Amino acid sequence: MTDHRSMPVPDGLEGDRLDAAMARLFGLSRTRAAELIADGNVRVDGTDAAKSDRVAAGSWLEVTLPPPPSAPTPRPEPVPGLRIVHEDADIVVVDKPIGVVAHPTVGWTGPSVLEGLLAMGVQLTTSGAAERQGIVHRLDANTTGLMVLAKSEGAYSVLKRAFKERTVDKRYHTLVQGHPDPLRGTVDAPIDRHPSGDGRFAVVAGGRPSVTHYDTIEAFRAASLLEIKLETGRTHQIRVHMSALRHPCVGDRLYGADPTLAERLGVARQWLHAVRLGFDHPTEGRPVEFESPYPDDLAAAVEKLRED
Questions:
Q1: Residue 2 pLDDT > 80
Q2: Beta-carbon contacts of residue 39 (< 8 Å; ≥ 6 apart)
Q3: Read out DSSP for 212-275?
Q4: Gyration radius of the chain's alpha carbons
Q5: Which of 157, 77, 152 is nearest to 113 (CA)?
Q6: CA distances from 303 to 106, 220, 261, 262 (A)
Q7: How distant is the alpha carbon of residue 206 from its chain centre?
Q8: How far apart are CA 252 and CA 260, in angstroms?
Q9: Is 181 strand, coil or helix?
Q10: So what CATH class is 166-308?
């Protein structure tokens, strides 16, 4: 269904390019905003405008937002390396390999956990959107480690609430550049989409509250191995907060990591692994905890640092 919006340009966007203003107002990428403008879906004070036009506060903005493309329907598709750590009538815990997203999304053509489980014959709850059956939390495509999914409706609602109320113990290990000072601490800084609209996230005033606790496990000459405990679960949270400390995750080119160090250690993605997951079982009530060993690429990088 097409969405028509009309509003005055806020004071805070005075002098911004139209595509940048559109991106900030509607949470779009700059590219998507430019496409809408080029297609004649944006008018300023009753006339068509160009993406590079500067907007004035109080000008009347009329926007036609086409319906977002629907996510693809999940289909059984084997996923090499996807491992079931635990399964019972209500939940399934998996160890997610590199290059796999949680569920199918618009524009992603690679494998997903959801489709891999369907190929294994695992029946997930139908709660939530069709393309996100059983998904109660997610990991980035190139972040490896533990995910829990719901197989029953009861488990889905209990787990969703547990993640929302921050009662799930989510532990990650990450290798970061340099040595954080202090060696342990908390980053409490709001996160939202980066103003550039290029898909990154950033610490942004007025963003969503985000809290990351870190502790140094082992320090090397050029890097530190940290244990991370998340209170919140924002997109790219660990990667953004480590970058904000000026100690980006090794290999995380998107957030400013040194490509030379990553290449020397043989790391082709961010060194970040969901190592432990603990929660109260959603139907039995007993505490459960699961652990995942480092995948080969991450383990090899740490060994190389120890040898150095």
A1: no
A2: none
A3: EEEEEEEE-SSEEEEEEEESS--TTHHHHHHHHTT-PBTT-GGGT--HHHHHHHT--S--EEEE
A4: 22
A5: 77
A6: 38, 11, 14, 14
A7: 19
A8: 12
A9: coil
A10: alpha beta
The 8-class DSSP code of residue 132 comes to: G
Of 161, 132, 168, 166, the C-alpha closest to 149 is: 132
**Cross-strand partners of 8:** 60
Q: Which CATH superfamily is domain 3-65 in?
A: RNA-binding S4 domain (3.10.290.10)
Q: How many helices (H) and strands (E) would you count in the chain?
A: 7, 15
Contact of 101 with 141, CB cutoff 8 Å: yes
From the candidates 90, 140, 192, 252, give the one annotated as an active-site residue. 140
CB 15 within 8 Å of CB 49: no
The pTM for the full model equals 0.78
Residue 249 near residue 178, CB atoms below 8 Å? no
The closest of 267, 169, 184, 256 to 218, measured between CA atoms, is 184
pLDDT tens track for 33-49 = 899 999 999 999 999 98
* Cα-to-chain-centroid distance, residue 156: 20
**Bond prior to 182 in cis (omega within 30° of 0):** yes
CATH topology of domain 69-165: Pseudouridine synthase (3.30.2350)
User: What is the token pair recorded at 275?
Assistant: 């190592």
Same fold, 3-65 and 166-308: no
How does pLDDT run across 225-262, given as a tens digit for each residue? 999 999 999 999 999 999 999 999 999 999 999 999 99
Catalytic residue check, 140: yes
